[in-house]
Amino acid sequence: MRYLPNSELERGQMLAALGYDSLEQLYAHLPKEVLLARALDLPPGKSEYEIIDYFRALGDRNAAGYACFLGAGCYSHYRPVMCDVVVSRGEFLTSYTPYQAEMAQGTLTTIFEFQTMICQLTGMQVANASMYDGSTAVPEAAMMAMRITSRSKILVSRTLHPEYRTVLGTYLRHLGAPVIEFGYDAETGQADWGDLESKLDDRTAAVIVQSPNFLGSIEDWRKAAALAHSKGALLIYVFTEAVSLGLLEPPRDADIVAGELQSFAHPPSFGGPYAGVIAAREKYIRQIPGRLVGETKDTNGNRAFCLTLATREQHIRREKATSNICTNQALIALMATVFLSVYGKQGLRELAQQNLSKAHYLAGGLPLRFQGPFFNEFVVKAGARTPDEINHELLGHKIIGGLPLGRFYPELRDCLLLCATEMSKRAQMDLVKKAIA
Q1: What local confidence, expressed as pLDDT, does residue 329 receive?
Q2: Residue 328 pLDDT > 70, yes or no?
Q3: Is residue 286 part of a domain?
Q4: Which domain holds residue 25?
Q5: Quick one: 367 and 413 in the same domain?
Q6: In terms of Cα–Cα distance, which of 182, 234, 180, 169 is closest to 213?
Q7: Whether the Cβ atoms of residue 429 and residue 394 lie closer than 8 Å to each other
Q8: 51 occurs within a structural domain
């Protein structure tokens, strides 16, 4: 790679400051096979007007005006305008991390409210603020369980999001912590509790179960908790569709809850940024990764907020830290906070009911692969055609179809994972049903 300053004079000045006479001397320590023997293939600089035109042309290539039935951990929900109004304010958009409480009461207040709402949503007693996304929250929760139990074995359901399982394996590979999967029932799409029970032992630190799971089925988390606790292990409950918690009972029997809040006002946006979250029982508060904002009083006795617990590497010694994630996604978490404030408890319940109703309308008459209860996602058999052929037909109607499952589950190569949300319209759902059935 070769950087060229604006002029030969500038380049000479930079090299002289480094003690070199030429670019070749600067790169002399590198093997020849990694050096680029030509100039970078970049067009000349563009004016601001040309840059704006360039990005507008790129934007026209996006799927504007398309209906989307693709879920799998990233969901198309309505974003209240109020979310953008609040997060676009300078005091939130441009503020840095709230180290000085006397200068950051607004940011600290929003984080405190975020933590409170997550506790109400999950049935847990404490919540952090927050993780990068759901895929990093899961391994952080697993390592938290390992610290609490002083054990290393992790049992994870095969119906946990496949990409979450991949990140989990990457995290734990060099910690000497075995990650063992247990299967799912071929009839219901739910976890196989018999397989889990056979793999549980006194070395198990945690059992990880997602509900609704990647195949859309709702899991019996009470059964999972009972099995885990019988061997002294913890239950980590995972969610990717946060809207489901508007209807499903909070997983109060779990020990740790890890999840993804993309559904709460975060656009799909090519995969991020999102906001992950970890919530837990209060007795595990000192093992929770990230940081927590707490309520206190200032010198005048007024209600105030401060960083109560910060166990990240940038705050304390590395060997004492609970996580090396050194951000709390405060702006992204604020979007979720505004979303929950706008909807409220009843509004979130009504939103979840819409998702449930539309998904069951879409599923009506289709060849479902599993017979277990589901929320707004489910698996259908493609039939005589392949999933890709069905999706190609739907694109002609400006519809993004479901996820072909063969990539993650070879035994389901003839199946599609479909999702319906409040954004799905009856006419579009009818087209999807016609293409499949």
Answers
A1: 78
A2: no
A3: yes
A4: 8-42
A5: yes
A6: 182
A7: no
A8: no
Q: How far apart are CA 327 and CA 342, in angstroms?
A: 26
What is the pLDDT, as a whole number, of residue 1? 40
User: Does 61 fall in a domain?
Assistant: no
Write the CATH number for 196. 3.40.640.10
Which segments of 128-274 are extended strands (E)?
Answer: 153-157, 179-182, 204-210, 234-239, 256-260
pLDDT, averaged across the chain: 91
Residues 72 and 150 in one domain: no
Q: What is the pLDDT of residue 213?
A: 98
Q: Report the C-alpha gap between 133 and 416 in whole angstroms.
A: 25
Q: Report the C-alpha gap between 145 and 154 in whole angstroms.
A: 9
* Range with lowest mean pLDDT among 160-164, 305-309, 325-329: 325-329
pLDDT attached to residue 322: 77
Q: Are residues 354 and 328 in the same domain?
A: no
List alpha helices for 60-161, DSSP H: 81-87, 90-93, 105-122, 134-149
Strand 153-157 to 204-210 pairing: parallel
Residue 391: inside a domain, yes or no?
yes
Tens-digit pLDDT profile for residues 383-420? 889 999 999 999 999 999 999 999 999 999 999 999 99
Please indicate, yes or no, whether residues 430 and 415 belong to a single structural domain of this protein. Answer: yes
Nearest Cα to Cα of residue 260 among 18, 74, 40, 35: 74
Domain end point (choices 287, 320, 339): 339
Point out the domain boundary residue: 290, 306, 339: 339
**347 vs 110, 127, 356, CA distance in Å?**
20, 22, 14
Q: Are residues 282 and 266 both part of a single domain? A: yes
Q: Is 28 left (phi over 0), alpha (psi -120 to 50) or beta?
A: alpha
Pick from 168, 167, 174, 239: which is nearest to 206 by CA?
168
Residue 321 scores a pLDDT above 80: no
Higher-confidence position of 154 and 324: 154
Per-residue model confidence (pLDDT) at position 327 = 65
- What's the pLDDT band for 200 if we cut at 50, 70, 90? very high
Number of domains present in the structure of the chain = 3
CA distances, 5 to each of 9, 15, 30, 40, 331 (Å): 9, 11, 21, 13, 35
